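Quick one - inputs below.
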Amino acid sequence: LCEINNVTKTYGEGAAQVHAVKDVTLTIEAGEFTAFVGPSGSGKTTLLNQVGCLDKPTSGSISIDGVGTSGLGDKALSQVRGDKIGFIFQSYNLIPVLTAAENVELALTLAKESGGRARAVELLNEVGLEGLADRRPNQLSGGQQQRVAVARALVKRPALVIADEPTANLDSASGTQILNLMRELNAKHGVTFLFSTHDPMVMEHARRIVVLRDGEVIEDRAGGEA
Amino acid sequence: LCEINNVTKTYGEGAAQVHAVKDVTLTIEAGEFTAFVGPSGSGKTTLLNQVGCLDKPTSGSISIDGVGTSGLGDKALSQVRGDKIGFIFQSYNLIPVLTAAENVELALTLAKESGGRARAVELLNEVGLEGLADRRPNQLSGGQQQRVAVARALVKRPALVIADEPTANLDSASGTQILNLMRELNAKHGVTFLFSTHDPMVMEHARRIVVLRDGEVIEDRAGGEA
Ligand SMILES: Nc1ncnc2c1ncn2[C@@H]1O[C@H](COP(=O)(O)OP(=O)(O)OP(=O)(O)O)[C@@H](O)[C@H]1O
Ligand SMILES: Nc1ncnc2c1ncn2[C@@H]1O[C@H](COP(=O)(O)OP(=O)(O)OP(=O)(O)O)[C@@H](O)[C@H]1O
Ligand SMILES: [Mg+2]
Ligand SMILES: [Mg+2]
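Output:
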């Protein structure tokens, strides 16, 4: 599903240059349930931003579903992203003036698809937020906002979901609930999941674990569920 | 240090009314190292916002160091807060146009105190962010931003630190590093720490654990370090 070839991402210039991701090569098969782990600052978010078409590598190439993405212009890149990828950001990024349901159904509304409200409410129930569809983000707890972001990523049934620390603000029951939802989508519909996480529970549910340190892959092993 | 008497916080009106905190009474002694735990949405952030003078209870009263805070006007309340309390927010709240060091030393700069830069760099080193003092928040990973927020809360050596999910985005090594820093401040300088957390590691280091569910205290027990 994803070919990541010699991807490097560098920030800044000269002595202050930061090598956030250094020459990473990986293959992601369709249907994977894979956790990226490693110390804070090791490059997990940066690497997933490249794979998720939110950013372009400094060098190297990425292709999603056979489509080379690292050479595309911004408009074409966001088309690929919109069609194929759902993203859960490390800092949620909900729109403050929209309700939970409006945040979730936004992608459908923009695509002029119908049935958005019903689908949003269904997903909000599945992530444990029954009855909270009409709250705004500042009327929700940190963990509740995080779960709205999970529902939003899933609304268009993307082929690939990239989830950056999806359980960081959740108690173990809520974290398990959304992880089980993701495993079900993975098992029944073949949705590919790539996680960035520090949560041992997510690692136990992963079938593959890719370990980063200082921007490099230092280990690629079976996860708890392999 | 803190007297929390029959504190209730309610949002909204009528049928949509949310009882985020329901009639909580607690005493916090100076020098405590206490974790507030409970499911997502159980009221931890809301309760700590009342104690930290960021919000006022709907009913009930709070006093910090003998000063009744729940009846104060906004100006007086922010004076108490500025003098006595350091806050680590669940979503960090760093100022995007300032560097990490400028964010940390801001409170000293506003109080026209000198030595801010040196103190900021010292604290950034203590939370594991050597060399990152001049980066802006969007040039830092999620966990690095969270640690800048920790350093900022400690810069004025407050009597009370309220830390809302301080390790949520940290790997276990970074989380242990900042928790050890906090334990040292607690042991050597008597700084009181109140945590909201889902992290078992923080609970193991706490001497007292207060368990919330649906806005009520359902358990008040010894922590791992009691
Ligand atoms: N402005 C508001 N209007 C209505 N309800 C609110 C508002 N702010 C918070 N709430 C509700 O109050 C309850 C407590 O929220 P709080 O943020 O204190 O939970 P929490 O224990 O910190 O959860 P988490 O672990 O997810 O951070 C939640 O059910 C939340 O939806
Ligand atoms: N715009 C930027 N300029 C300079 N350095 C940057 C920039 N953005 C990120 N970095 C650096 O790149 C490195 C990788 O960051 P990244 O966000 O990928 O880490 P991470 O593994 O997701 O960490 P965490 O677990 O804390 O979320 C970090 O050292 C960070 O400071
Ligand atoms: Mg990250
Ligand atoms: Mg909270």
